[in-house]
Design a protein that fits this description.
147 residues
Amino acid sequence: MWSEIEKKILTEILDELIPANPAKKIPSAGQLGVASFIFEVASNSPKLQENIKLVLTWVISKADKISPHLVREIELIHPNAFGSLITETYKGYYSRPDIRKKLYLSEKAVHPFGYEVKSESDEYLKELTDAVRSRGTVYRDPTGGRR
């Protein structure tokens, strides 16, 4: 489904999106194989597949070499497709326990069974919303009073 040139180009784009940090022995997104993650997710998401194809087709038609400038250009010219790409790149990269450990984060995934996230108390939520509730109704009733 994906050509070798598309795989190579996506890997190079990923290296620009999340570059390596050799001093800390942290690999880039491309080196880590995040392209495989993105292609797998795209195989189940026609919209993501369309967005990735759009980015890759555009890049292949424009340049021989991926650069930070070219990646910024993709973002400007195809913001929705780029947004999908960056979201999946982050998911594929930062969800890996080995990377999370290198960044001094918990190796557990955030959701659904990762970090414990405590709910705010009812009192705290009431305090946060008191000012808004004290203003009363400040919107127009769409029914015009007819119900």
